[in-house]
Amino acid sequence: xxxxxxxxxxxxxxxxxxxxxxxxxxxxxxxxxxxxxxxxxxxxxxxxxxxxxxxxxxxxxxxxxxxxxxxxxxxxxxxxxxxxxxxxxxxxxxxxxxxxxxxxxxxxxxxxxxxxxxxxxxxxxxxxxxxxxxxxxxxxxxxxxxxxxxxxxxxxxxxxxxxxxxxxxxxxxxxxxxxxxxxxxxxxxxxxxxxxxxxxxxxxxxxxxxxxxxxxxxxxxxxxxxxxxxxxxxxxxxxxxxxxxxxxxxxxxxxxxxxxxxxxxxxxxxxxxxxxxxxxxxxxxxxxxxxxxxxxxxxxxxxxxxxxxxxxxxxxxx
Length: 318
Known about the structure:
9 strands, alpha/beta, 9-stranded mixed sheet, single chain, globular
């Protein structure tokens, strides 16, 4: 894949006009208020992962609608008091996985709370009551004709509640909570940074769920293609679909983020095109920096992104 999007100089200046719903803030205030009417009802069950350098807990808490959400809490075994916590979100189609996959942050001295994505992965968190089958695709259009019913209303709310949970944990420094993720996880981290004032810093890698309209117009890659296929069939519902997506668009949520943010982007990324990432980055309201990987696609910096994140995060949390 060659560089198919705008040149880098133009990307740094790319700041499309916001076209958000008039009741955007009221919608999210009501959604989160309703979710917080349910007690978190958190349970932390010790889990023997045969990893003596860390302490692992199998976590359950109440997310959207009081529905149960699974997570891993992984702490460094050696710690002198409450530690910063990275709340980690997952890419499209994936779930919380297994504890050994999430050792970077505990190795750096942080806790990590890895939130399962409802209806995705291996099925630890159902999306809707009675529907325990995990979905590999199709979630981009699940409920897309009504913002009240749209899938990402539930998932973003779960993510906000995950930060609420992290702030209650005895071993976590509630003033040093970080949100992180790549692709869908990056889009979720971006959303939570815009919705939760307790976030201290945000690691937003190659974010998905951002500038939907342009994404559907310039890439044939999935998952954005799920929306395009839906619209090709439902020709008379285009306005309805983008009216719903306006409540969940990362560009609108980024405009409300105030915590320092470290973004990353691949200039050959056909899954999350660079202009969609820069649209959100340029609107992000807080202090920000972006790591550009010129010859990479959706993998972005891959294993080389962590060496960029670690010193940046150390500086934010000191």
